[in-house]
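Please check this today:
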Amino acid sequence: MRRVGVGFICLALIASCGGGGGNQSSGTPKNGGTATIALESELRTLDPMDSSLLVEREVFYNLYDSLFTIDPSLTIKSGLVKSWDVSDPLNYKFTLQSGVKYQDGTPFNGASVKANIERYKTGATSRRKSDLASVNSVEVTDDTHVVFSESPTPRCWPRWSTARG
């Protein structure tokens, strides 16, 4: 009887590992449709300023762009910042991507960068204050150029690659 039980369990395991066929299409991908995604916990906010949960950051990476990105080899790459000049260690000059708009059609520009940084630095519920503690000011040169002035502390701009929104 024991052999029959072991045989049945082995058969069940083998059957559950099968290829199954399913609905597999090998055609050209199409736009549209619905994606269902499972997360390990509920989101508390969609505002990066108020976020303190890793699961929220995972969602932000798919919703918002950042000033910089980091590639798989941990090299800082351009994001919304097209290029940068850090020849002066206390003043970082950034050239922004042009033609970018927020979801409501508002243009992304130097003024919006400054407003977001100031909001993150001064918001009562901001969890980004420590990330930006060394930024003394943001000067808008024009729509596509900003200058971040920092205090002489370790550079914080690599952290901007993880701050979305």
Notes: The mean pLDDT is 83. The beta strands are 68-70, 76-78, 81-88, 91-96, 135-142, 145-150. The CA atoms of residues 6 and 12 lie 10 Å apart.
